[in-house]
Amino acid sequence: MSRGDRSRVNELAAGCPVVAIDGPAGSGKTTIGRLLANSLGFLCLDSGLFYRAVALAVTRGGSDLHSSADALREARALRLEFVPDLPGRYAARVVDRETDITDDLFSNDVEQAVSLVSRIAEVREVLLDAQREVLRGGKVVALGRDIGTVVCPEANLKIYLDATLETRVHRRWVERQGQGNQADISDVRDGIVARDRIDSERATAPMRVASDAVTISTDGVMPEEVVERIKGLMVARSLISAT
Q1: Is 243 inside any structural domain?
Q2: In angstroms, what is the C-alpha Rg of the chain?
Q3: CA–CA separation, 177 vs 163, rounded Å?
Q4: Which domain holds residue 168?
Q5: What is the mean pLDDT of the chain?
Q6: Were 210 and a residue from 99, 148, 151, 180 both cysteine, which residue would form a disulfide, CB within 3.0 to 4.6 Å?
Q7: How far apart are CA 64 and CA 98, in angstroms?
Q8: Which of 123, 93, 117 is nearest to 198 (CA)?
Q9: Domain harbouring 21, CATH code
Q10: Number of domains comprising the chain
C-alpha cells in the first residue's frame, strides 16, 4: 500500500474502527467474524469470497487454473456486491452482476481452485483495490489471511485466530456436511493441509501473523467467548464503549 493509500484509509476510517481477523482455514474466522460484526452493527467483509468468486469464474468458464492471464481476466470482469446474510451461515451473500453466487462459492471445485488463483500476484493486486475500497468506510470486521499484514496494516485491532489441524479439519468437515456435501474427512484434511502450504509459501502476501496481532486459540472455545474477548480488547483500546 502506498503512503497516499494509507492516509486515505486512515482519514476515511477515522472514528470508524476496522478489525482485522486473519487465520488459516477452519480457525473460526467466518463464524466469529460474523457474530462480532452483527453484535457491533459492522459490515463483515470476508476477503476469501473475492478469491472464491475468481475461482468460480475460472472453473465455470473452462479456463486454465494455472493460467495467470485467464484468472486475471476473470478477476477484472467481476462486479461484486455484498449483502448481509442474516441469519444465514455466510459472512455475506455475494452478488455478481445481479446473480447470487454465494452457494456456488463453496463447491468442491472452488475449494480446490481457490488457493491456486489466490497466489497469482496480478489477481491479488486487482482484488486488493476492491477490498480497500470497502475498508475505507470503516466499521468493518475484515476476515482473511493477509488483512492485518497487507490489505489493511492500519487496522485498529488485529486478531490472528488459530486452532489445531484436527480441530480445523473437523469443523470444515461438519460445515461441508451441513451444505449437503458428503466429502470424506480424509479428503477434507488433505485439502486443508494443501491450502495451508500454498497460503504460507506463496511469494505474494503469504499468510503470517502480523507483529502487532493478538493471537487467540479457538480450540475448545465457544465462538461467543472469542467474540466477547475481542470486544473486550476493543473496549480497552477505546474503539467501542463498554456495555
Answers
A1: no
A2: 17
A3: 20
A4: 3-235
A5: 87
A6: 148
A7: 26
A8: 117
A9: 3.40.50.300
A10: 1
